[in-house]
Amino acid sequence: MTTWDPSQPILEIENLSISFFTRLREIPAVMDFSAKVMAGESMGLVGESGCGKSTVALAVMRDLGKNGRIVAGSIKFKGRDLVTMDDEDLRQIRGSEIAMIYQEPMASLNPAMKIGAQLAEVPMIHQNMAKDEAWALARQIVTDVRLPDPDRILNAYPHQLSGGQQQRIVIAMALMSKPALLILDEPTTALDVTVEAGIVDLVKALGEKYGTSMLFISHNLGLIMDVCDRLCVMYSGEAVETGDVVQVFDKMRHPYTQALFRSIPLPGADKNARPLISIPGNFPLPHERPEGCNFGPRCDYFEAGRCNAGAILMDAIPGDDRHASRCLKWKEIDWNAPPAARIAKPKSPIGKVVLKMEELKKYYALSSGAFGGGAKKVVKANETLSFEAREGETLAIVGESGCGKSTFAKVLMGLETATSGSIMLFDENIQSTPIQKRNIDTVSSVQMVFQNPFDTLNPSMTVGRQVIRALEVFRYGTSDQAREDRMLELLDLVKLPRAFADRMPRQLSGGQKQRVGIARAFAGGAKVVVADEPVSALDVSVQAAVTDLLMDIQRENKTTLLFISHDLSIVRYLSDRVLVMYLGHVVETGTTDQVFQPPYHPYTEALLSAVPIADTKVIRKRIVLEGDIPSAVNPPPGCPFQTRCRWKSQVPGGLCDREMPPMRTLEGGHQIKCHLSADVLAGMEPVIKSAAE
Amino acid sequence: MLIFVLRRLGVMALTALVLTFVVFYLTNLPPNLEKLARSEGSVRMTDESVAAWIEQNGHGGSVFGRYAQWLGVVPGWTYTDEKAVTRGRCIAQGDDPALAATYCGVFQGYWGQSTVFKQPVLSELGGKLAATGWLMLAVMLVMVPVSLVIGVLAGMREGSRTDRVLSTFSIASTATPEYVSGVILVALLASPMTGLSPLLNQWGVIEGKILFQGTATSAMDDITFWNFTLPVMTIALYGIGYIARMTRASMTEVMTQQYIRTARLKGVRFRDVVMKHALRNALIAPFTVIMLQFPWLLNGVVVAETLFNYKGFGWTLVTAAGNNDIEMLLGCSVVAVFVVLVTQLISDIGYVFLNPRIRLS
Q1: Does A111 touch chain B if contact means CB atoms closer than 8 Å?
Q2: First to last CA, chain B
Q3: Dihedral sign, Cα of residue A582, residue A583, residue A584, residue A585
Q4: How far apart are CA A393 and CA A560, in angstroms?
Q5: Phi and psi (nearest 5°) for A387?
Q6: Among A40, A141, A318, A511, which one is most buried in terms of CB atoms within 10 A?
Q7: CA nearest to A88 within chain B
């Protein structure tokens, strides 16, 4: 360790190849991967699921499990090769020199151990620190990761903390022995955007404070831009492009990087200004990779006989700082050419009111205590929700977890009944009718597309059978033949080959499964479709295709789409009107343009500023919300957002603490639930600005 | 917490009531009573005199009435015969009927008279239960630590050689019924003719003819290593395999959890990963299984006690059942029901303390 020279890379990976060995065959997970991380530098690894980015991280930790093996190459950490290191030396490095932060904080913390004990363990192992000293250090680091009330937290069990707090604890655990290299494996994927913004800020600040190098793994390009200095784009086990973040973002030199950028929506643009372009085809399975360029079959610039001739090596791009691309044709492609123009589809006219909610309330009574005793508490999941949705309209419902958007969907679907208020579907009040008692017409006209396509299809029924089953339930058609024909039509509608009818769900990719979910929802000619985060479980390149499909079907059928999402970029892209929810309340509603431009509700402003944007030409104001979302069991008095609002001081007389703000209507039907005066609202600046302005 | 325990106790009382009634009804079926009459009275009784005997000894009337008498909520039966001698449930032989209590049932502490042992059920059962208690204690002391160690060792590295060997042993031991393993143990260790004993005797390792004693009757008065090992081993072997399999399954699952990876990548030694991080989480599931072993042991001792002639609860149960000793059988069932319900209550409470996620806030 003493021989290491700080000007040398902290981590140097050279021509690394990793394979997993099954009984059938060897499955190469990572091929010929090279990367260098200098001291104090942060390196981003981007790619879709299955591209091998997490495998690289685990290989650095030498924790590939029983089946995984490094088959070639070297991983040098401070000049020592980790690949050939013995277990005892490796154990010394793990946790003290290299630390890791994981995707799911809840699963990564031991449920039966106190937080303090889990933190203090690190210095006790590596520095033989006494227990008291280690706990004192743990207390200090907990303060460092900006957690309130460190003493209470040290004595808590993981399940007593919120997701954001848990992730801060995982970060604290990684920092306990001031490691030289920090590996972050999708550290914020499981968290809400405003919480994510806080964590990202923290990671950046701590990285600077301790001079830690970072290997940051994410599928989110915007996040990589926020955190990293350099990045490496991976596709199907290979690094396809690497370089400085700004250089790669502005001057991408690999078709996959370009396609990836074109398939993600940006909150600064809508569907007309910047249409999404999905990447055609599917991600190749590890044992079905094509000859030559892995991206070849999905690439617009593919040239048969050249791109699929043989192995392609990384080619340095002259003039740039360590910028390289694994593309044979990068010199020939005109990178500035605009994407092929798409036929603009006319917006379907917005018709009469289909769904109307008035003063909807949903309270849950819950009992506390493990043995069912204790006082009854009331969770106010939805408070006075009122809105209308019209035919052919896309209404987006935005908010973080716990804001009541899923409860609202359940009430609308009839899985729960509302505490008070009314839901009018056409002219019928369906508010207090549970789904068992609704007639088939109502059930088939209000349908849902679920968040996770992996769990919502019956794994032991063919795709066709599941759609036919839905048709049977809706009493569609008079014969099996009629239903079968309709099922095939539905597969056409969601652009799946008819042959898929005989397939089992496990033979389908995530995007294909979600298409089946959409076909099922539209089986009975649904008038209102509730899409609950329909694309958040999918990879970015598939998201665009599924989103477009939903909108196409909506246009044809004049369906009312209620799009529940936490992703403001996609909401901006596809919705006509937006409803922002916080703690059971609607805090802002208006057309998409109204909501995405000032004046904002302070919460909308924070939400917008928290979205990472993968565009170097955009300047975004950073507003990081302090603290967590208050519990719905015990909401704050007055305005629900007052505990985290940065504008609170602008309202005179402590009104926010005492009174629930009224819903105020601004020009054009834009509604905001806030005490701020008209002047202050009018003086708000846009959160997202183009740098050119 | 208190409310929960009280509610559970209420449910337990109700369950006990229902279960004892079922046993009461089954043991008091007419053919049983007929058999009782013939064994207590005379084998050569006519059918008429059998009916009269049943009527005159408090076994007539509705089954509910007799159950209530047994419980002690209605007055016990009395019968005055032609010689003006009054007999009754609450009147012991030779006592003055006028001084006897009106109510005498389980609630008053009177569990009836055993027809086989010619003793009050309660005192007889008390002594037998104490004997079985010692046996169960010894079994638990052997079974729980051994099985947990085996389960944890096997589960911490799934698929390793240690795992395969220990799993094979667990499956074999749990697949061998007690009446088989008991006989094998006796043949192997407690016979002067076969097994190890003659060899050891020949080599001069042991003085006597046998290593362990094949009967545990002497353990009634004085428990020693030599007379108690075989019955304990016979019962424990079966349970060891079972609990070890449960512990292994729980342990292998815990070892694949992400927080175990976190611990490993913190640089925790493998031994500490197992002891500090995995063990407590892995014990949550086997704890319930171990508590379930108590009622099982109560029945499991039947075979072992009969085999080794150890006069405990199981032996009493077998004798009572074989000799149509109705009051004794009822007493045994009350004890069994009680043990099952109490261990379940302990199991539920202990579970909460082991698993912080469902602990009281």
Answers
A1: yes
A2: 11
A3: negative
A4: 5
A5: -170, 170
A6: A141
A7: B269
Collect all residues with Cβ–Cβ distance below 8 Å to A328 and sequence separation of at least 6: A293, A306, A307, A312, A315
Query: What does the CA dihedral A533, A537, A543, A548 come to, rounded to 10 degrees?
Result: -40
Q: Which residue of A has its CA nearest to B356?
A: A112
Q: Which tokens hold the place of B202?
A: 């020949």
Cα–Cα dist B59/B195, whole Å: 53
d(CA A467, CA A511): 17
Calpha distance A176→A213 (Å, rounded): 15
pLDDT value of residue A654: 77
> Does the beta carbon of B266 lie under 8 angstroms from any beta carbon of chain A?
yes
Give the closest of B159, B257, B277 to A107, CB-based: B257
Nearest residue to A31 (alpha-carbon basis) of A20, A44, A42 = A20
Domains of chain B: 2-108 (no CATH), 121-360 (1.10.3720.10)
Contact B266 A112 (CB under 8 A): no
B279 touches chain A (CB under 8 A): no
- Chain A residues inside the 8 Å CB shell of B359: 370
Sequence-ordered list of residues with C-beta below 8 angstroms from that of A93, at least 6 positions apart, any chain? A77, A82, A85, B267
Residue from B266, B281, B357, B359 whose CB has the most chain A CBs within 10 Å, to mutate: B266
Sequence-distant (6+) residues with CB within 8 A of B161 are: none
Kindly list the distances between the CA atom of residue A576 and the CA atoms of A340, A392, A572, A660, in Å, as whole numbers in the listed order: 25, 10, 8, 28
Pick from A111, A369, A372: CB nearest B357: A111
B215 three-class SS: coil
Q: What is the mean pLDDT of residues B125-150?
A: 88
Digit-coded pLDDT (tens) for A627-638: 777 777 777 888
Is 0.90 surpassed by the pTM of this model? Answer: no
> Which 37-56 residues of chain B touch chain A by CB within 8 A?
none
CB atoms within 10 A of CB B334: 18
A105 touches chain B (CB under 8 A): no
Query: What are the tens digits of pLDDT across the range A330-373?
Result: 777 777 777 766 666 666 677 788 888 888 888 877 655 444 44
Euclidean distance between CA atoms A207 and A141, whole angstroms: 14
The reported pLDDT for the residue numbered B361 is 36
Give dist(CA A106, CA B84) in Å, integer.
Answer: 81
Higher pLDDT, A462 or B86: A462
pLDDT of A371 reads 46
Look at the alpha carbons of B102, B105, B108, B111 in this order and tell me if their dihedral is positive or negative.
positive
For chain A, residues with pLDDT lower than 50 are: 1, 369-373, 693
Does B256 reach chain A within 8 Å, measured CB to CB? Answer: no
φ/ψ of A284, rounded to 5, equals -70, 140
Q: Give me the phi and psi of A142, to 5 degrees please.
A: -60, -40
Neighbours of A465 (CB within 10 A): 15
Closest residue in A to B279 (Cα–Cα):
A112
B-contacting residues in A 48-67 (Cβ below 8 Å): 61, 63, 66
Q: Give the residue from B234, B239, B216, B236 showing the smallest Cα distance to B226.
A: B216
Helix A193-210 / helix A163-175 crossing angle, nearest 10 deg: 10
Comparing CA positions, the residue from A164, A142, A167 lying closest to residue A152 is A142
- Residues A195 and A628: beta-carbon distance below 8 Å: yes
Q: How far is A100 from chain B (nearest CA, A)?
A: 7
- The answer to whether B3 faces chain A, any CB pair under 8 Å, is yes
